Amino acid sequence: MPSVFAGRRKTRSMTDRVTLVIGLSHQEAVELGVEEADTEHVLLGLLREGHGVAGVALRALGLSYESVRTRFDRSPGSPHSPSREVTPFTPRVKEAFRLAAAESQRAGSDRIETEHLLLALATVPHGVAADILAGAGVDEGALRAEIDRILTTDPPGRLPDLDDVNQEISRLEDAAAVALRADDLDLFRELTETRNSVVEQMFDRVERWRANLDAYAVLELVEEQQRLRAEVQNLRVLLAEEESEPPDHS
Predict the structure, then answer these.
(1) Cβ contacts of 185 within 8 Å, gap of 6 or more
(2) Which pLDDT does position 233 carry in this prediction?
(3) Least confident span in 33-42, 51-60, 78-87, 116-125
(4) Whole-angstrom Cα distance, residue 129 to residue 224?
(5) Helix, strand, or coil (residue 89)
(6) Whole-prediction pTM value?
(7) How far is residue 14's CA from residue 182's CA, in Å, rounded to a whole number?
(8) 13-157+213-244, which class in CATH?
(9) Which residue in 55, 128, 198, 250 is deepest, having the highest Cβ count within 10 Å?
(10) How far is CA 160 from CA 144, 204, 206, in A?
């Protein structure tokens, strides 16, 4: 995976999901006919990808791709001038990636994940993405809390840990057997119903995990890998150019 921070002591690479988000962000900018991809397009990219931690967190906090996208749709009959195929990022987006790299380091990860990028978008000064989040009542604290909840329960793309569920099922089955031997049919039925409910919840968790994997696999197939690599390379060049510029002390 290409690095977005060439020349740094420790390389921060991006996960496949973040690479996909970059491509989707550019696609949003192209479709909206703007010259540069800004923070709002990255937010749309996170929502459109939808199956990483960031997308799951945003949905849980009440934000959907459709609700955000409608803010930027052109009015009927307005001219549409598509921008060039590879759209550059604004300085705000490049700052977001720097903040995401720092967030990744604080989290003890060697890669930029979607949640790191989302937290960065929420803190970039004068960014439209931050304004959208604030307008929806979503601040950095709410994002962190929801991300922590997701990462400690059912992280997207990771098979959920079902040991605790299996132990609970075994406990209920043992208790139901004891109740049956004691001819306590009411307790037996209650424990059996509870056991069946826990089993259904376990199946739901596994199905959600499978759905996330399937949806992401389909999304990967429809995206043009060559274009994504070109866009990632474009980001690297833009970041390298800005880092090589001498600071303005005026």
Answers:
(1) 179
(2) 59
(3) 78-87
(4) 26
(5) strand
(6) 0.59
(7) 59
(8) mainly alpha
(9) 55
(10) 21, 11, 7
β-partners of residue 45 are none
Tracing tokens 């004068």 back to the chain, one arrives at 126
From 38-42, 118-122, 176-180, the region with the lowest mean pLDDT? 176-180
Contact 57, 148 (CB under 8 A): no
Q: Which residues 6+ apart lie within 8 Å of 215 measured at CB?
A: 50, 51
Rg (CA), the chain: 23
- H helices within the chain, ranges in order? 16-32, 39-49, 53-60, 65-69, 91-106, 114-121, 128-135, 140-152, 163-181, 185-222, 225-244
Higher pLDDT, 241 or 50: 50
| pLDDT tens digits for range 99-149 | 999 999 998 888 899 999 999 999 998 999 999 999 999 989 999 999 998
> How many whole angstroms separate alpha carbon 123 and alpha carbon 43?
13
For residues 15 and 101, is the Cβ–Cβ distance under 8 A? no
Query: Three-state SS for 37?
Result: strand
Q: What is the rounded average pLDDT for all residues in the chain? A: 75
Domain residues of the chain, as ranges? 13-157+213-244, 163-208
Rounded-to-integer distance, Cα 241 and Cα 213, Å:
36
State the pLDDT confidence band at 228, using cuts at 50, 70 and 90. low
Q: Note whether 131 and 156 are within 8 A (CB).
A: no
pLDDT digits (tens, 9 = 90+) for 49-61: 887 889 889 998 9
Residue 50, helix vs strand vs coil: coil
> Cα angle vertex 223, ends 218, 227, to 5°?
160
Alpha-carbon distance 233 to 104, whole Å?
20
